[in-house]
Design brief:
Elements: H1 3-20, E1 22-27, H2 35-50, E2 55-60, H3 68-76, E3 82-86, H4 95-98, H5 109-129, E4 132-139, E5 144-147, E6 161-164, H6 167-175, E7 179-182, H7 188-193, E8 200-202, H8 204-209, E9 218-220, E10 228-234, H9 235-239, H10 243-277, E11 281-283, H11 287-321
Parallel strand pairs: 1-2, 6-7, 9-11
Antiparallel strand pairs: 3-10, 4-10, 5-8, 5-9
Helix pairs in contact: 2-10, 5-11
The structure holds pyroglutamic acid.
């Protein structure tokens, strides 16, 4: 072999290794202030650091590349390779996504972990139907009630406009005697100040991220449910990767899941304290409000079971058996 042949060979292998280096865009729905995006960034950094230059994932947070309602479709159609969404938003695609927002089914983190275990196979199966592979989930702290006056029973909310962020929370607003209004997280502060909404149910984190003390006064810790975001990748694109890169992604996903669940638990406490420290009136629900809300929760579980059929029943059965 002469020098020229050797050089050509070296160049060719260089070119092919450059061609093999994949670049993925990862749209996230929420901004950099949320723990969800921090978890997504640490996931991407771990993959980038360990994939030996074969894959680089770039995070585009806060809907900057693709808006939240479009992210699922964008990964499915391979407009982007990977993405994160709030699970409950997809409720109209399949009931398994609605399960993530059912109130008073799993209200503490131990129960929420069990519900995730019981529902994961069904969740993954549904994603596979759209050519998607579930990588990890990350919870929000439990969902609490924000209002502009004390709420001692549902009567205090009657007729108010309630923010909804998923089909299930629209139904919840109906059953609470309020009017659901769909408002994305990015518009929450403005929606309150322009009276487009009067109340919302979301985590203390989302209040902290949007400085809710500037526009709303009362926070009732109803601990209604623990919803999750999920990260998924287009399966065809994933399947084309080398095995070592696949393994790096799965390890980073498992680490992100651990980190997300630990943060969810921790921020539930820290962010509730921050709301209080910033002047919000934080209180536990009255027995009456709690009982009224739990009755709605029971109705919503029943409605969900009718909608989700046998597979839904087996998810609930295995959750309750844990
Ligand atoms: N915050 C997100 C979803 C759930 C949560 O706690 C939001 O309000 O949009």
């Amino acid at each position: 072999m002469n020098k020229i042949t050797l050089l050509t060979g070296a160049l060719l292998s260089l070119v092919s290794s450059i061609a093999a280096a994949d670049k993925w865009d990862l749209p996230t729905p929420y901004g950099d202030g949320t723990h969800q995006t921090q978890v997504a960034r640490s996931f991407a950094e771990e993959v980038n650091a360990n994939s030996g230059g074969k894959l680089t994932i770039k995070v585009h947070s806060g809907g900057a590349l693709i808006k939240h309602p479009e992210i699922h479709r964008a990964v499915k159609s391979r407009q982007v390779q990977i993405g994160e969404v709030f699970i409950g938003r997809l409720g109209n695609i399949d009931p398994i996504f609605k399960l993530d927002n059912i109130p008073f089914l799993a209200t503490d983190f131990d129960s929420a972990e069990k519900l995730y275990k019981a529902s994961k196979a069904e969740l993954s199966k549904q994603l596979v139907k759209d050519g998607l592979l579930l990588l990890y989930t990350s919870p929000w702290p439990a969902q609490d009630l924000y209002s502009n006056k004390p709420v001692t029973s549902l009567a205090d909310l009657s007729g108010l406009k309630m923010r909804a962020y998923s089909p299930t929370t629209s139904r919840l607003a109906d059953l609470m005697g309020t009017t659901p209004v769909n408002i994305p997280f990015s518009d929450v502060a403005q929606a309150f100040t322009t009276n487009a909404i009067d109340a919302m149910v979301t985590s203390p984190s989302t209040g902290v991220n949007s400085q809710s003390w500037d526009y709303i006064s009362h926070f009732t810790t109803i601990n209604a449910w623990i919803p999750k975001n999920m990260m998924f990748v287009n399966k065809k694109i994933f399947d084309r990767l080398d095995d070592d890169v696949k393994a790096v992604i799965m390890t980073a996903a498992a680490n992100a899941e651990k980190k997300g669940w630990a943060l969810g638990r921790k921020l539930a406490v820290e962010h509730t304290d921050m709301l209080r420290e910033n002047g919000m009136q934080v209180s536990a629900p009255t027995e009456k409000l709690d009982a009224e809300l739990r009755a709605i929760g029971a109705t919503m579980v029943d409605e969900w079971l009718v909608e989700a059929g046998d597979s839904g029943k087996s998810v609930i059965d295995s959750y309750r058996a844990m």
